[in-house]
Each structure stands twice: as structure tokens, then as C-alpha cells.
């Protein structure tokens, strides 16, 4: 089952694949995808953040739009930016979003993304107490990316 937030993110990513910038109208996109406009906002604020390599610009009003732009274009810049933006805690969803971004930027191949995702998953970290997983996940991801860089 595909969640609506995944559908929204996939739609925006497809637009970004056509160029480095995607311009959407929130209400039109909500109608197209059969969701409420607040779901568009949620996806934008959770999956298209500066830490993940995106800049969001919006203009309100009748001719309003939301413009999403990729901040970096080459794999080296993407990798360096993300390594430096990872804090001391990282939840699983954010880790997956970071890996997706690095894959889309060409900084990591699919096999590497799959291996790192498996290593950072809650399933792999089950022996670690829940309250310590996000700290360990952040540390692991930073170290893996530095080793690959």
C-alpha cells in the first residue's frame, strides 16, 4: 500500500527530475492526487528540507505557487552537505530520505543505499534500547558516508 505522502513526494521528485526546479500549485496538486492541501505542506516540510538539499519558495494569492529547488547538483557537494548537516540524532525516516537524496544526486548507487538502509533500520538496531537508536543511527550514517567520500 502506497501512502499518500509517498505519492506526493514521488510526484514532486518526478517534476524535479525534469529540471532542478519544480513549481506547483498546492490546491491543484491536492485535487490531482486526491488529498487535502495540508498533506502537501506536511510532505514539503518533512521531505524537502534544506538539510535534505532543497529550497522552498512560496508566493501566496491567486497566482500563488510553491517552487522547490535542488540546492546542490553534483554528488561531491551533496555528500559533503549532508554529512555536515546530520546532527547527533537521526530517525529512520530521515535517514531514508537522506539516502534517497544522495542516490538521486548520484552520490550513492542503489546497492550502497540498500546496504546502508539495512544497517540503519530499526530491525538491525533491535538490540539497542529505543532511546539510543537515533543517536547510534546518526553516528553510523556519518561514519559510513565519510568512509565512502
Topology readout:
Layout: H1 4-17, E1 21-24, H2 26-33, H3 37-47, E2 54-59, E3 65-70, H4 75-85, H5 92-104, H6 110-120, H7 130-148
Antiparallel strand pairs: 1-3, 2-3
Helix pairs in contact: 1-3, 2-3, 5-6
Describe the 3D structure.
- With 149 residues, the chain is mainly α.
- It has seven helices and three strands, in the order αβααββαααα.
- The chain has a three-stranded antiparallel sheet with strand order 1-3-2.
- The longest helix has 19 residues, at 130-148.
- The chain is globular, with a radius of gyration of 16 Å.
Broad shape: globular
Number of strands: 3
Query: Pairing-aware structural class of the strands and helices?
Result: mainly alpha
Roughly how many Å is the radius of gyration?
Answer: 16 Å
Q: Gist?
A:
The chain has 7 helices and 3 strands, in the order αβααββαααα. The chain has helices at residues 4-17, 26-33, 37-47, 75-85, 92-104, 110-120, 130-148, and strands at 21-24, 54-59, 65-70. A hairpin with a 5-residue loop joins strand 2 and strand 3 (65-70).
What are the main properties of this structure?
mainly alpha; 3 strands; 7 helices; single chain; three-stranded antiparallel beta sheet; 149 residues
Amino acid at each position: 500500500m502506497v501512502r499518500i505522502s509517498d505519492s506526493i513526494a514521488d510526484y514532486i521528485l518526478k517534476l524535479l527530475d525534469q529540471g532542478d526546479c519544480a513549481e506547483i500549485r498546492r490546491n491543484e496538486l491536492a485535487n490531482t492526487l486526491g488529498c487535502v492541501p495540508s498533506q502537501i505542506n506536511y510532505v514539503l516540510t518533512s521531505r524537502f528540507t534544506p538539510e535534505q538539499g532543497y529550497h522552498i519558495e512560496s508566493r501566496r494569492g491567486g497566482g500563488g505557487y510553491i517552487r522547490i529547488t535542488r540546492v546542490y547538483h553534483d554528488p561531491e557537494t551533496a555528500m559533503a552537505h549532508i554529512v555536515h548537516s546530520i546532527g547527533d540524532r537521526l530517525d529512520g525516516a530521515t535517514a531514508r530520505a537522506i539516502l534517497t537524496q544522495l542516490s538521486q544526486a548520484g552520490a550513492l548507487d542503489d546497492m550502497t543505499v540498500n546496504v546502508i538502509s539495512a544497517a540503519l533500520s530499526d530491525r538491525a538496531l533491535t538490540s539497542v534500547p529505543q532511546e539510543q537508536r537515533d543517536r547510534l543511527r546518526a553516528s553510523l550514517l556519518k561514519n559510513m558516508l565519510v568512509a565512502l567520500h
